[in-house]
Amino acid sequence: LELSLNLLSNSKKAPSTKLSKKKALVTAGPTFEAIDPVRFIGNHSSGKMGVAIANELADRGVAVDLILGPSDIEVSNKNINCIRVTSAAEMHQYSMDRFNDADIAVLAAAVADYTPKNVSNSKIKKANGIMTLELTKTKDILKDLGKAKTKDQLLVGFALETNNELENASKKLKEKNLNFIVLNSLNDDGAGFEFDTNKITILDDSNNVEKFELKAKIEVAKDIVDKITSYL
Ligand code: CTP
């Protein structure tokens, strides 16, 4: 009986003592910026990487607020409070609201950097000649959380780079006051938005650079959460 009880308890993942009772904020997915009632500017983010991180944290006993942009992914983890948003402005607002409560924030969303200056209330009709769309900058959620961050809060960002990858990622780490940054390179086969796999490099605030193999996003999420645990 004792043996079977042991087997039973070993088969369930024991919550990490360092992470249980912690609270996290995770952003994931794309954002859609409305042009008119039927059109928007979006991107190809699937939300898979961010949702995998939210699930991994939740499985290790963390209470997660997941701010998720438009994505088909179903989220059904009892430790995740999933807040579905559409635009960068909404994602910014909810992230700022929930950050106070968070011990850990991981910003994996592919947030639009620009949004239409004016949103038309009715469908824009086509006309002759060139159509020009004016865009304004969105608020940088990661940067604003970096400004608000206390020394007890852990802030993790992502960087998607195509050239001068390490240099650009290291600049973002410092400018946005992050503890570490997860670099994805679009130059790696099998890494990026639409894949189930990813290949990352982690740069941290002590100038450590750690390269990981190409692996399933679920496994990548474990590496990222292990890195988070090393700070606690
Ligand atoms: N990010 C954010 N809010 C924005 C834009 C980006 O929170 N308005 C976050 C992303 O979630 C990611 C990180 O910032 O964690 C990096 O995003 P990226 O687009 O690679 O970099 P940018 O800071 O937008 O810089 P650049 O466009 O110059 O590469």
Structural description of this entry:
The protein is built from six helices and 14 strands. It has 232 residues and is α/β, with parallel strands linked by helices. It has an eight-stranded mixed β-sheet, with helices on both faces. The protein has a two-stranded antiparallel sheet with strand order 2-3. Strand 2 (33-36) and strand 3 (39-41) form a beta hairpin. Helix 2 (48-59) packs across helix 6. 35% of the residues are buried. The model has no long low-confidence stretch (mean pLDDT 92). It binds cytidine-5'-triphosphate. Residues 27, 88, 107, 109, 111, 113, 138, 140-142, 157-160, 172 line the site of cytidine-5'-triphosphate (CTP).
Topology:
Layout: H1 2-11, E1 23-28, E2 33-36, E3 39-41, H2 48-59, E4 63-68, E5 80-84, H3 88-99, E6 104-107, E7 114-116, E8 135-137, H4 141-148, E9 154-161, H5 165-175, E10 180-185, E11 197-198, E12 200-204, E13 209-211, E14 215-216, H6 217-231
Bound molecules: cytidine-5'-triphosphate (CTP).
Question: What's the tally of helices?
Answer: 6
Amount of helix: 25-40%
Number of strands: 14
Strand order of the largest sheet: 5-4-1-6-9-10-12-13
Short description:
The protein has 232 residues and is α/β, with parallel strands linked by helices. It has six helices and 14 strands. The mean pLDDT is 92.
